């Protein structure tokens, strides 16, 4: 099961210090194992801190990966989403128990220019299936939300991301898709996005 999906920055934003990243979108799935005695506000703050910890670890890994590859990040423009996705870097990091989740998790990430997309999955999940699902989600996000251009609509159109997640990752479950079902799902998503 997928525990959360995050869209965040992987390079410093002008208003942030050099070690910080900004979470643009987050959605959690499954039971909330945070202490039920906490107030809703405290639970929300703890969940936010948990997501920021994951984002910091992914950002650090992306930076190291980009340094090791030696390839400069080439800025793409709207309309070049497919090329940007092909040029993206990806990877997996293991989140040990207690850092930040009570049990061990895997974080599958995909970095497209200055944006990072992360799926946090339970340790026993099929990582190839998770990566394929993440790439499909990222492709739809880049194409429908025009995330490569200035003034990205991520924050204003979170309902579209929610709809994509409901179709491609229902209740946090990874879907095995045959060709026919995948084609049907693509049509459904395309019809929703054009609304």
From TrEMBL:
Question: A single Pfam family, by name?
Answer: AP-5_subunit_s1
This protein's superkingdom? Eukaryota
Q: Which GO terms describe its cellular component?
A: AP-type membrane coat adaptor complex; cytosol; late endosome; lysosome
User: Which InterPro entries does the entry mention?
Assistant: AP-5_subunit_s1
Q: Which GO terms describe its biological process?
A: double-strand break repair via homologous recombination; endosomal transport
Signal peptide: which range, if any? Answer: none
Protein's recorded name = Adaptor related protein complex 5 subunit sigma 1
| Organism, scientific name | Cynoglossus semilaevis (Tongue sole)
